[in-house]
Amino acid sequence: MTIGDFIHGGGPILIVVLLLGAVGLFFFFERLFVVLKEKSELRTLSVKVRNAIAQKNVTASKQYCRSSSSIFSSVMLKAFEYYEKNHISEFESVLQSFVEDETFKLEKNFRYISMSISLAPLIGFFGTVVGMVQVFGGIQSMGGIAGLKGQASLAAGISVALYTTVGGLAVAIIMAILMTLLREFEDRLIATTIDEIRVSVGKLKSIPAGEVH
């Protein structure tokens, strides 16, 4: 059986299921690009910020952060605010919450991926129910399933009806796996971001406020 035969067998409802899967895939790759971009920017930006702090140039560090929309830059700007108010020692206790507040930048379109995971099997099952109704309606019009012809018709009808369930489950399983991978990438990025912020804040703590420029 070819993919074309499978789609033809599932009919319009299977096409809807596959379109839903395509939407989920689009947003998976879109979010993956965002996560990878954030990771790449983190490497570059954290080095620039730490080097500027080492040179006691807080102004340059803040400018680097303002030029970026990353989680690292947003949280570091808050760290500089604490530093300027001589409360930098308190920043460590709120660091985790600040980072969590910024994770919406990574999870912005996660709901569309979750939607494809939850709706695909439901629509697939709906297609199967509709197909079964049509099958048994056809059997009724034929006056039963007596004989090989009727049994063959029933088997063929049920086979076609199940295409949508197979398609829906396949879409849901694939998207669930991809969503798990995306969550793993996100968790690793967040952990790395927190570590980089702690290192930068540690350097900032070692410099008296009166010595920076």
What's the β-strand tally?
0
Class per helix and strand makeup: mainly alpha
Number of domains: 1
Tell me the distance between the termini. Answer: 71 Å
Proportion in β-strands? under 5%
* Total DSSP helices: 7
Gyration radius (Cα, Å) is 28 Å
* Secondary-structure element pattern, one letter each: HHHHHHH
Q: Which overall shape is indicated by the principal axes computed on the Cα atoms?
A: rod-shaped
Instruction: Write down the overall mean pLDDT.
Output: 82
Low-confidence stretches: none
Biggest sheet layout: none
Oligomer: single chain
Determine the fraction of residues in helical runs and give it as a percent range: over 70%
Question: What do these coordinates show?
Answer:
The N and C termini lie far apart (71 Å). The protein has helices at residues 3-54, 58-66, 71-84, 91-102, 104-107, 110-142, 147-205. It has 213 residues and is mainly α. It has one domain. Helices cover 86% and strands 0% of the residues.
Produce the secondary structure layout.
Elements: H1 3-54, H2 58-66, H3 71-84, H4 91-102, H5 104-107, H6 110-142, H7 147-205
Helix pairs in contact: 1-2, 1-6, 1-7, 2-3, 3-4, 3-7, 4-7, 6-7
